Amino acid sequence: MPTLLIADDHPLFRAALRGAAADAVARMSVLEAESLDGVLAALDAHDDVDLVLLDLHMPGNHGLAGLAAIRAQFPAVAVIVVSANDDPRVVRRALDHGAAGYLPKSAGLEELRDAIRSVLACEQWLPPALRATVARAQSSRHDAELAARLASLSPQQFRVLTLVAEGLLNKQIADRLDVQERTIKAHLSAIFDRLGVRNRTQASVILRELELSDPARQIEA
Q1: Would you give the DSSP letter of residue 9?
Q2: Judgement on whether residues 46 and 150 belong to the same structural domain of the protein
Q3: Given a cut of 90, is residue 77 above it in pLDDT?
Q4: Phi and psi at residue 178, in whole multiples of 5°?
Q5: Is residue 141 exposed (0-12), middle (13-18) or buried (19+ Cβ within 10 Å)?
Q6: Which residue from 8, 39, 73, 154 has the least number of CB within 10 angstroms?
């Protein structure tokens, strides 16, 4: 029986996704999370999750950073990005950073069901209306290289990088991860080497490059 994790901070939208999942697969276990921290905690606690439906702009996640975190720390888990942003360039970037599918929030229930079935069958999925334009949106060399460098990090190294980007000092990171401070220093040396950077500031910039503006917030403004 497959296990699905629905990651979105809007209860009504989570309910809609849960209903679509129930229609797509007869027997499926469904978990929910409303923040990126909740997603990572759920994946830590449940090693049988097969698929995550990930909102790009839930609390703690501002673009592709959450996708990169999941792919680095839980590479066996497939991710369908769910977003109000249907810009083909954004979709292309999500696929380059390891998404197995991309689902606009405007999608109908049949597309929701089709996306879930397809990705659980180990296929890549895009809505029919976006396939041609995304195919024309070529991957940028920079994004491809960035995705490869982030993918070279171990799960623990990616956690350290995330905490560095939050501004934590080595001792604070060591306390958070319950390890020795010298272990954090060793991780940082490896992170700098694999990302091709020289210091903490440059390493933090790498993650900030994955941030995206939220179309919903732009409309509200």
Answers
A1: S
A2: no
A3: yes
A4: 60, 50
A5: exposed
A6: 154
The pTM score is 0.84
Rg (CA), the chain: 18
Q: What CATH number is given to the structural domain containing 116? A: 3.40.50.2300
Helix (H) or strand (E) holding 52: strand 51-55
Do 87 and 218 touch, CB atoms closer than 8 A?
A: no
Neighbouring residues of 99: CB distance < 8 A, sequence distance ≥ 6: 67, 79, 80, 81
CA atoms of 214 and 199, how far apart (whole Å): 29
Contact assessment for residue 143 and residue 90, using Cβ atoms and an 8 Å cutoff: no
CB atoms within 10 A of CB 207: 23
Give the residue among 71, 74, 77, 80 at the shortest CA–CA distance from 24.
Answer: 80
Which tens digits make up the pLDDT trace of 107-144?
888 899 999 999 999 999 999 989 999 988 877 778 88
Cα distances from 38 to residues 74, 157, 175, 217, in angstroms, run 14, 19, 20, 22
Q: Torsions phi, psi of 6, nearest 5?
A: -95, 120
Diameter of the chain by CA atoms?
52
Write out the two tokens for 192.
């700098």
